[in-house]
Amino acid sequence: MVPILRYGVDDMNRVFSRTQLDNSEYIDTVNAIIAEVRKRGDEALFEYALKFDKQDINAQNILVSQEEIDRAYSLVDKELIESIRKAKASILAYHSRQRDKFANEFFSSGSNGKSKLGWIYRPLSRVGLYIPGGKASYPSTVLMTALPAKAAGVGEIVVTTPNINNPAILVACKECGIDKIYKVGGAQAIASMAYGTQSIPRVDLIAGPGNVFVTLAKKQVFGHVAIDMIAGPSEILVIADDSANPVLLAGDLLSQAEHDEQAASILVTTSERIAKEVDKELARQTALLSRKAIIEKSLATNGTIIVAKDMEEAIAIADKVAPEHLEVCAKSADKIALKLTNAGAIFVGNYSPEPLGDYFAGPSHVLPTSGSARYSSVLSVDTFMKKISYIEYDKDDLMSIGDDVIRLAQSEGFTAHANTIQLRKNK
């Protein structure tokens, strides 16, 4: 069903050339939307909502009401609400432990120890979360973006989403203590949070995945506002040896293939037998799944099985791919995991499948994609914190190094910099 390649023999371009899709054809459209929202505010939002999302919104109904939230609770299965609450507890507990490391710190400095340096951590004041609609509904994305922000101590969290007809999203927002939910989607939602409109406040950071228009809009507004990351198509890489179960391996690969046609599902195995059996199992399981058409296109485009000569080679392949999700289903999986360098999240052992991370375990499922795990990290408490330097010099310490500062400033032609130090020396 998917090609079986041998590393070092076959062309690996199918795997290693993954990058963000070329979306240049949409840039002009996105720029026009951003410009209109920036210029006309709510008026442009209402027009685009009607045009793109077929939603008739205005200043009176753009904000989700308590009545709408109450109705959502009446429509969502009680067991699902309980599962949302359990997942919330797990995710919040994980990120609360992260928050504990953000302690202000100060230490003595200078020749006499009377000066003080350090750093101060502060949470962002207001963040905006984008919760997508499209081919699937993601109440889990509410949990995975809002709860790290809550754990960080963010002052205000707002949500924009075109998917208000899904009551589970509204329930998840309420359970996470979201301050305001706006019925806006697409590039126009990103622009509204980046610049502010009459109804939607400007935020400090925008987080959350979206379609091509949302992704490009986040790129365009970066600098006016912070963003979490640029998310591409979902992906999974599974490392497996001869001890792994091909039925489970195929199931794990398919869990990502069903996201969309551009999702990547890659198996790297040291076993020829596993490679062949997984390929057969992919076909068998796909025929039974509800999103069969999407899965078949995804596997045809980006599905790959690679046979490595040994585990060291498998690790090297995984690090080169730098996948969003990386599963290790092999003997000594925990030891193999610690040798890996590039991944958004690592799932260790046969009982840690990727969907566990999508919904419940604790770490956010908003992860770097398209090889960006080489240099970027999972959305976390860190995303919603900022570090401020603290500098407090004693007079004697400043006098002792004043000439050095003056000399460095003058070497760069900044005489005013040098002067402000000299003024203190003269005094």
SSE topology:
Elements: E1 4-6, H1 13-16, H2 27-40, H3 42-52, H4 66-75, H5 78-99, E2 105-109, E3 115-123, E4 126-130, H6 139-152, E5 156-160, H7 167-175, E6 180-182, H8 186-195, E7 205-207, H9 212-221, E8 226-227, E9 235-240, H10 246-257, E10 264-269, H11 272-286, H12 292-302, E11 303-307, H13 311-321, E12 325-329, H14 333-337, E13 345-348, H15 354-359, E14 385-392, H16 395-411, H17 415-426
Parallel strand pairs: 1-11, 4-5, 4-7, 5-6, 7-8, 9-10, 9-12, 10-11, 12-13
Antiparallel strand pairs: 2-3, 3-14
Helix pairs in contact: 2-3, 2-8, 2-9, 3-8, 4-7, 5-6, 5-7, 6-7, 8-9, 10-11, 16-17
Describe what you observe in this structure.
- A six-stranded parallel sheet has the order 1-11-10-9-12-13, with helices on both faces.
- β4 (126-130), α6 (139-152) and β5 form a beta-alpha-beta unit.
- It has helices at 13-16, 27-40, 42-52, 66-75, 78-99, 139-152, 167-175, 186-195, 212-221, 246-257, 272-286, 292-302, 311-321, 333-337, 354-359, 395-411, 415-426, and strands at 4-6, 105-109, 115-123, 126-130, 156-160, 180-182, 205-207, 226-227, 235-240, 264-269, 303-307, 325-329, 345-348, 385-392.
- With 427 residues, the chain is of the alpha/beta class.
- It starts with a strand and ends with a helix.
- The model has no long low-confidence stretch (mean pLDDT 94).
- Helices cover 45% and strands 16% of the residues.
- 43% of the residues are buried.
